Amino acid sequence: MKIYSDYPARRALQITADLAAALVIGLGIWLGVIVGSAIAVLAEVGRQLETAGAGFKGAMTDAGDALGQVPLIGASIRVPFDAASGTGGLLEDAGQTTQTVITTTAIIIGALVASAIVFAVCWVWLRRRFRFARRATEANKLAKLADGPDLLALRALVGASRRDLAATDPNPVASWRSGDLTVIRKLARLELREAGVRVAG
What we know:
Layout: H1 8-40, H2 43-67, H3 74-142, H4 148-159, H5 162-168, H6 172-178, H7 181-195
């Protein structure tokens, strides 16, 4: 498959466009990571909540255990502390859940941002590159066939601009139909040039 034009100026533009597309894709991935990381920072709230819940739970459990040693009334006194310890456990669980939700959201949004940029670049860039490669490859193959000049000339008649056609002959269609070899060669060269294939000789 022919990926780049045989003409230096056009080839340089294609290589520049490829490098620019690769750079934008890289920047898109980097931006996705930055956005994801920025959102993930919010998970610190969950970590703080988890730490606070665990600390409160531990303090209430320790207090309940200590007061539970008091003779006669120890069991009654520790009840509210056990309840408070359970509340601390709920806060701890809530902190863990918050961290999980925020981290997951950060990953998803970061991936979406990166994917959107990569998809947009590929949609514009790869389609153009694929069209060129297909056209150049087909033109290169046609040029090697015995009746290649006729087929290339026909393609030029269909796809070339009116100005380019007029530059080859005042009546290019009629000349092609009559089998004018000079006009056919000019039209074939025109198609090859537009396809990015250099004419030998």
